[in-house]
Design brief:
Blueprint (H helix, E strand, L loop, with lengths): L12 H5 L5 H5 L4 H4 L4 E3 L5 E3 L2 E3 L4 E4 L8 E6 L8 H15 L7 E6 L4 H6 L21 H13 L3 E8 L6 E6 L4 H11 L10 E2 L2 E2 L4 E2 L18 E8 L4 H28 L1
Parallel strand pairs: 5-6, 5-7, 7-12, 8-11
Antiparallel strand pairs: 1-4, 2-3, 4-6, 8-12, 9-10
Helix pairs in contact: 4-8, 7-8
């Protein structure tokens, strides 16, 4: 995509990202005072080694207000590819906003993993340091420590829904993948619609090599982050993609709008199902 593409203010990701390579700086907005509120908990995954250094995948758990029924447990994942930082920033911003106004999280336990690939995040690279593409390695007997740690989380918590945030440097618009629960399309459509406030949708009939309709793909690459193959019933699974060459701040806002729309739409679907 060229810089002259209509609808985009193209920034220079490498220059922008040099300011964001510190994981500590990314998490700075979530302060000790926030953790003292009783809604937000910090519970990083166990340490692992990469190239003679120790790393951790940060995890936050946000408990929303009661919603009148069983809490829905959602897993929200960013930074699986380290050079796709807009999703990581959006997840931190989501938590910051929920601390100020928890109502959008009513009825939810949100398990938030802002940076699933800490070494890739530091290096601004798709892959972890010395490893393979993490998002092609899930449930394929991978030995990558990040994959093993995240698979354990997926098995332990058996999420009711999964949302993974990505950015695609070959797409000129927003799009997403749906899998799992048959109602997942009804969650991605409002997410795309909300995100279109900030960036256009990709309306082409083929995206990332897959057939697509209105920016929705009903297929996926092997090895993407997903629920355990044995989990039943299947949760909803959404991969939400922004155009990586678009303005970084607009990508963050698009991710954030999509997440809030998914929370709202899923809560509405749950309430409807309870009344049937």
């Amino acid at each position: 995509m060229s810089a002259e593409t209509p609808g985009f203010h193209v920034s220079h990701p490498s220059a922008r990202m040099r300011e964001r390579r510190s994981l500590g700086k990314l998490l700075e907005p979530l302060t000790a005072a926030d953790l003292a509120t009783g809604n937000l908990f910090f519970s990083p995954l166990p340490e692992f080694q990469r190239c003679c250094r120790t790393f951790q995948i940060p995890k936050y758990v946000f408990i929303g207000p009661p919603g009148g029924g069983t809490y829905q447990r959602l897993g929200l994942f960013g930074g699986i590819h380290g050079d796709e930082a807009a999703g990581s920033v959006a997840l931190v911003e989501l938590l910051r906003r929920l601390i100020e106004d928890p109502r959008p999280a009513t009825g939810y336990e949100l398990f938030v993993y802002p940076v699933c690939n800490p070494t890739g995040y530091e290096d601004d690279t798709r892959w972890p340091r010395g490893g393979e593409d993490l998002n092609r390695a899930f449930w394929r007997n991978s030995s990558e420590p990040e994959v093993l740690l995240l698979e354990h989380q997926l098995e332990e918590f058996r999420f009711d829904g999964l949302v993974s945030l990505h950015a695609d440097d070959t797409s000129e618009g927003l799009y997403g993948y749906v899998a799992g629960d048959v109602l997942t399309r009804h969650l991605l459509e409002p997410a795309l619609a909300a995100a279109e406030t900030f960036l256009p949708r990709n309306h082409t009939g083929r995206i990332d090599g897959w057939p697509a309709e209105r920016g929705i793909i009903e297929d996926a690459f092997l090895g993407v982050l997903a629920a355990p193959p044995t989990q039943t019933p299947r949760p909803f699974e959404i991969v939400f993609e922004t155009p990586q060459l678009a303005n970084f701040d607009q990508q963050v806002q698009a991710h954030l709008a999509a997440l809030l729309a998914i929370l709202k739409a899923h809560r509405s679907l749950q309430a409807h199902a309870a009344n049937i």
